[in-house]
Design goal:
This protein has helices at about 1-5, 40-50, 80-90, 135-140, 155-165, 205-220, and strands at about 15-20, 25, 30-35, 55-60, 70-75, 95, 105, 125-130, 145-150, 170-175, 185-190, 195-205. It is an alpha/beta fold. The strands form three sheets. It has an eight-stranded mixed sheet with strand order 5-4-1-6-9-10-11-12, sandwiched between helices. Strands 2-3 form a two-stranded antiparallel sheet. A hairpin with a 2-residue loop joins strand 2 (about 25) and strand 3. The mean pLDDT is about 90. It binds cytidine-5'-triphosphate and calcium ion (CA). Cytidine-5'-triphosphate binds next to helix 4 and strand 9. Cytidine-5'-triphosphate binds near residues 18, 78, 148 and 151. Its cofactor is Mg(2+); FMN. Keywords: Decarboxylase, Flavoprotein, FMN, Ligase, Lyase, Magnesium, Metal-binding, Multifunctional enzyme.
């Protein structure tokens, strides 16, 4: 009810997001993934839509329902997420990379299910690095306003600001610790060229609204 009376701060804007984990197959029945429920990204997609934006959500495997009015594209691997994002990036005003993207995929994934063998030999997996979706979007000519997330296990203040510079994004959002995974509450720290600021601890939907307002206030024009 309250949201309906707020000004639509993203009216006429197009917002693209990634959310959830990716899944990198080892064989047809096994894979490697990251810890992410997708809740934060889905909450931000919902908040952006409430703020009047046209929202596209590239979602890795999650058990979450699609927020009302949001265009959702389901993907599994980091490469698929990258390809879906690059195909949709043109003309977007904002890109928010919330997904916990697997940094590596299995280079020697098997087309058939791997079988245990009597000697106890274990599979020897080799890895290849996945494309960095956020950095790729940030490097586009006429890139949208790019927002990254960083879940660090230590030294958040230092690592998050380093990550913001490395990825060349104007805004990077730090999660405090891994205690946020799967939880409904979270605490965020925003890093931009002026320094950093905390958003007070709150439910993910409330935080998502606060973050969307922060992003709207930073858009050019
Ligand atoms: N990200 C991405 N594509 C990747 C890896 C990360 O788009 N292949 C995005 C994430 O969605 C997040 C940001 O980059 O918004 C930071 O992700 P993170 O894993 O913290 O950073 P990395 O650069 O992968 O560094 P590391 O995992 O080594 O700390
Ligand atoms: Ca990573």
């Amino acid at each position: 009810i309250v949201a309906a009376f707020q000004p639509k701060r993203l009216a006429g804007k197009r917002v693209l997001l990634t959310a959830g984990p990716t899944f990198e197959p080892i064989d047809p029945v096994r894979g490697i993934t990251n810890l992410s429920s997708g809740k934060m990204g889905f909450a931000i997609a919902r908040a952006a839509r409430e703020a009047g934006a046209s929202v596209t959500l590239m979602a890795g495997p999650t058990a979450l329902p699609t927020p009302f009015g949001v265009r959702r594209v389901d993907v599994r691997t980091a490469q698929q997420m990258h390809d879906a994002v690059m195909a949709a990036a043109h003309g977007q005003d904002v890109f928010i990379a919330v997904a916990a993207v697997a940094d590596w995929r299995v280079a020697n994934a098997s087309a058939q299910k791997l079988k245990k063998n009597a000697d106890g030999d274990t599979p020897q997996l080799r890895f290849e690095q996945n494309p960095d979706i956020l950095a790729a979007v940030a490097a586009l000519p006429q890139a949208p306003y790019c927002v990254g997330f960083a879940a660090e296990s230590e030294n958040l203040l230092q690592y998050a600001e380093e990550k913001r510079r490395k990825k060349k994004v104007p805004l990077l959002v730090g999660n405090i610790g891994h205690e946020t995974f799967g939880r409904d509450e979270n605490e965020l720290v925003l890093f931009d060229h002026d320094g950093y600021k905390h958003l007070p601890r709150a439910g993910k939907q409330e935080l998502a609204r606060a973050l969307v307002a922060e992003i709207a206030g930073r858009l050019p024009g």
